Every structure is written in structure tokens, then in C-alpha cells.
Amino acid sequence: MVDLYYITGDVPLERLFAIADKKRVPVAYEKFLAINIQDIQGEVSLISEILQDELTDFLKALT
Description:
The relative contact order is 0.16. The chain is extended, with a radius of gyration of 14 Å. It has one domain (about 1-60). It has about 60 residues and is mainly α. The protein has helices spanning about 1-10, 15-25, 30-35, 50-60.
């Protein structure tokens, strides 16, 4: 999510979808679900802080 947050600061989400449509490779959906069910978590090192409200608003805009 953090990567997408920063990328969309330079490239609008609509443009990213258009680029993805041109480069899309079929996804093995069953494998993707298996990964998603595992609740992927991790840590990110940032060079500057992301304000909680900004990140929350970004995540709401994705849904």
C-alpha cells in the first residue's frame, strides 16, 4: 500500500490502471487467494512520515 500511495502522488490511479491493462499477465487467481488469506503483513522504512489521515483517506479512495 505504501508503494501505491507514493506512486499515485505522481501518476493518477486511472493512468496506472490503463498501463496495467496493457501489460497485464493472467493471474493464477486461486494462488492469489491463498496468499491473500494469509493476511500479508510487513514493515516499511520511510524517509518521511505519512500522516495517518492522509493514508486513511487514500485507503478509503481505493474502496
